[in-house]
Amino acid sequence: MAAPKKGRNQGAQGKPGRTLALILIAIVALTGGMFASGHTTPRLGIDLAGGTSITLQAKNEPGQKNAINKANMDTAVDIMNNRVNGLGVSEAEVQTQGESNIIVNIPKGTNSKQARDQVGTTAKLYFRPLLQREASGPGATGSPSASPSASSSGTDTGKESASPSGSPSASATTQGRAATDALKADPTPSGSGSPSTEASDSASPSASGGADDATTKLQAEYAALDCSKPEQRAKAGEGSQPGDPTVACGQDDGVWNKFLLGPVGVDGTEVEKAQAVIDTTTGAGWEVRMDFTSAGSKKFADVTTQLAQQQSPQNEFAIVLDGEVVSHPYVRTAISGGTASISGSFTQQEAKDLSNMLSYGALPLTFTEASVTTVTAALGGEQLEAGLIAGAIGLALVIIYLVVYYRGLSLVAIASLLVSAVMTYVIMSLLGPTIGFALNLPAVCGAIVAIGITADSFIVFFERIRDEIREGRTMRPAVERGWPRARRTILVSDFVSFLAAAVLFIVTVGKVQGFAFTLGLTTLLDVVVVFFFTKPLMTILARKKFFAEGHSWSGLDPKRLGAKPPLRRTRRVTAPVDTKEA
Q: What is the pLDDT of residue 528?
């Protein structure tokens, strides 16, 4: 019976050397990836490294009263958060201040100009039929592309194409894409339904009637517009309503164009979903696929039915974001069914930018930049230094306690803490460039709190081993019998900590999320370290004479622990019987 029992013990102990090698290989691989990426330090948040602070002031739009309210301001904050996240920025703070201001804090290392363009954009998104376009500025050459007799019938190169999703799309170079990133849709009233046939069939808004004063003014505005000048771009189409023709600017391959556009055909809020995908059917590369609401589907079908009958450039519809044409794909055929795709020579990033813009839609208010300031990290640096000193003191006290109370076992705990610290540092460094994670002061606090959680796991395991030794067992069986009980306790404890961190991360924003994320990450790493480092290391040390024989400095001395006598099998001895006396 002894041999099978011995075999079961060996099987229970497994191969700890192989497990230790596995985690060490993982650490080396992660560290190598960190150095290979060139990001050898964690990305710091705005409170530690500085950054940009933007103050935005909300204004009522013309004709609207009392638009500045809590509901609209909260919606604006949510949309701006989505925009910043769409840029790959983490730990950015977007919050209201007072009744009409929003503060956006963006950490250093982010493209601050791009972020400013995103969060400050009012983002009224419309689809308008294109009536006329031409290069604008002193260096502009060529005549306007507006005549119905212009060449091409929807196969123009140099433009994106709009087609029903899943159908072949023309191979074309990209035109009309601006560097516009993530915006989020927010319901705003649509100005009109589909454009009139007269507006689409004409090179100017005057085709449907006489040249009234409004039309004459619009034609004069279009003729005088110079999109190469920032001040004119900012005022292009200012004050126009969704149901009216308008002028706008847009940039194609670094060249500014001016556009004459018809009334709004589809509101941006009627785009239900947009995503960047690869066209696997024709191999045309990246495209942007759109799904419309039921109302938007009908409007889009009406628009594309009319545009498909026109010649270039009047077979194009302009995607207009805040008065700027960010894309103007041409239509090859009427698109019904509520799903369409925009294809062209998109790069992955360009397709993602356009899909984000279509997905995120419009803000309920107009925002202007009240101030833009650069935040220094001086105060945060002092707080970080104080926090690190407090953390070092706490860690030192933990180590002193472990050494005094657990003696030789403290070496296992310290080694496990070092492994956990290395893995935490490397993973945080890698998460900076991959998901935009930024280490702020609350995140540092989360890492300091994690020291206690990790140390608690070691203590649970050590105490289970010591309990087994008190029962009279030797070191090797004490480790194997104590581990299942300790394992359950450790998993339950870490699950509770992780659940608390997950809930905190979901229901909060900004810096508190940094604390929750770090706490959750270190809790998961605690499980990894205990299972793949601490336990195998203890199994190996249990075979060493220093621990196996319970040296007085091992922390497992049976005498100091008040162990019972060893559990041994004894024979029952009976006294001899004197038969003579009996």
A: 93
So what's the pLDDT on residue 453?
82
Distance CA 245, CA 203 (A): 12
Kindly state the tokens that stand for 554. Answer: 């091992």
CA angle 382, 386, 391 (to 5 degrees): 145
Give 270's DSSP letter. Answer: G
Reference 129, options 331, 294, 323; nearest CA is 331
Which helix (H) or strand (E) segment is 161 a member of?
Answer: strand 161-164
Collapsed DSSP state (helix, strand, coil) of residue 246: strand
- Long-range contact pairs involving 149-152 (C-beta distance under 8 Å, separation at least 24): 149/311, 150/311, 150/312, 150/313, 151/311, 151/312, 152/311, 152/312
Closest residue by Cα to residue 77 from 367, 401, 301, 434: 367
The predicted pLDDT at position 423 comes to: 92
Phi, psi (rounded to 5 degrees) for 468 = -65, -40
469 Ramachandran zone, left/alpha/beta (phi>0; psi -120 to 50): alpha
pLDDT averaged over 10-residue windows placed end to end, the chain, 582 residues: 44 71 92 88 78 83 71 76 63 78 77 68 78 76 39 34 40 29 26 35 42 78 87 79 88 86 86 82 81 88 87 84 82 84 80 73 70 71 76 85 87 90 91 80 84 85 89 87 91 92 81 85 92 91 84 81 60 55 46
pLDDT for 520:
92
Cβ partners under 8 Å of residue 301, min gap 6: 334, 335, 336, 337
Tokens representing 39?
């990001």
CA distance 69 to 75: 10
User: Apex CA 167: angle with CA 161 and CA 170, to 5°?
Assistant: 35
Going along the chain from its start, the domains and CATH numbers come out as: 12-44+377-561 (1.20.1640.10), 53-107 (no CATH), 125-363 (3.30.1360.200)
Asked if 9 and 477 count as a contact pair (C-beta separation under 8 A), the reply is: yes
